Amino acid sequence: MKILVTGGAGFIGTHTLVELLEAGKDVVVMDNFSNSKPESLARVKKITGKDFKFYEADMLDTAALDRIFEENPDIGSVVHFAGLKAVGESCEQPMRYYTNNISGTLKLLDSMNRHGVKKIVFSSSATVYGLPKSVPIKEDFPLKTYNPYGETKLMTERILSDIIKADPEWCAVILRYFNPIGAHSSGLIGEDPKGIPNNLFPYITQVGVGKLKKLRVFGDDYPTHDGTGVRDYIHVADLANAHLKALEYAEKTVGIDYFNIGTGKGYSVLDMVKAYERITGKTIAYEIVDRRPGDIAECYADPTKAKEVLNWTAKYGIDDMCRDADRWQTNNPEGYTK
Ligand code: WQD
After folding, report:
1. Which of 2, 68, 128, 313 is 20–30 Å from 330 (CA)?
2. How far is the CA of 198 from the centre of ligand 1 (A)?
3. 63 CB contacts (<8 Å, ≥6 apart)?
4. Which one is catalytic: 55, 97, 129, 149?
């Protein structure tokens, strides 16, 4: 059976394609290139030596979605990455985020249902936990979001839960990502944010290659070991493997389940700066500035459930993440150029 990967040209999407193709899976890919470039898919083919069908299509285009399922009747499941994902941007453009992430996902689920495809692995986020009452975070912690981006993730989880209550033939495996960073060890694919990176690690690697001058550290007065924000950084290759394990789980079950995909370890902003400098020998100039609105002090996973149910644990550590991210950024200072 084939797997449809929506948003397959993106950061997590490309790394998951490599994982699936190298595991011998047949994939069909769709992407609208709104936040990615065709070169990323060419690199996936170069890494794996495998080919796959690609559709440049938007989730809001029902006819395009139907065409994909009609032309590929052997699609048995979907890995759904496609979506807008910048927290700050979602606060400025809520309508765009709800239209794209919710209406787009509803059109995808409707087309799946009409074509009898009832298995989905969904790209959710630790952001659904909002301000966690404590750390490490377990899957049964209270859910609360504070921005439209996070709201679209939580709403989609609830939509899937209601679909499954109405039709128990459906299966949804929801992966709540913590902070994905790093790159494939080849240096051919990696994180390629548009414009100035919102996230910490691509900002650090761009300072490392001289594309940006100085890192602004958003606050050093948090109740953490060094005052800067603590997060659970996970190598994108480990995250990709979690999707393979989730698909294998989805193929033998029905219903809905949720998994924290993190390492279970928290590192601060300054820990990450020091690790990157140690691994690469480069210096990261930084300045402590005010806190970023909406940031929390600490967020890291309890990944026990993914280990017990999916037989998944993170293999890579911070040093691997720094080494691989720097190789990608050094080889591709301007990211994908076409
Ligand atoms: C990490 C730490 C910042 C940038 C977000 C989304 C989440 C997911 C991952 C999509 C924090 C600090 C950051 C900078 C800094 N996105 N920082 N200077 O906020 O944990 O999570 O990205 O799925 O849903 O919420 O990640 O990398 O932005 O921040 O000091 O220039 O780095 O304050 O402590 P975050 P981040």
Report:
1. 313
2. 7
3. none
4. 149
Q: Sign (positive/negative) of CA torsion 9, 13, 17, 18? A: positive
Mind giving me the DSSP string for 97-158? Answer: HIIIIIIHHHHHHHHHHHTT--EEEEEEEGGGG-S-SSSSB-TTS----SSHHHHHHHHHHH
Instruction: Decide if 149 is catalytic.
Output: yes
| Residue 286, ligand 1, Cβ within 6 A | no
Give 6's strand partners: 30, 80
Record the pTM: 0.97
State the number of CA atoms in the 13 A half-sphere of 107 facing the CB.
22
Mean pLDDT of 217-222: 98
**Before 136, cis peptide (omega within 30)?**
yes
300 lines ligand 1 (CB under 6 A): no
Rounded CA gap, 137 and 150, in Å? 16
**Cα distance between residue 76 and residue 3, in whole Å:** 6
The DSSP secondary-structure symbol of 199 reads: S
DSSP H/E element including 166: helix 148-166
- pLDDT tens for each residue of 270-308: 999 999 999 999 999 999 999 999 899 999 999 999 999
Helix (H) or strand (E) holding 289: strand 286-289
Distance between Cα 63 and ligand 1 center (Å): 36
Measure Cα distances from 304 to 64, 69, 129 in Å.
39, 36, 17
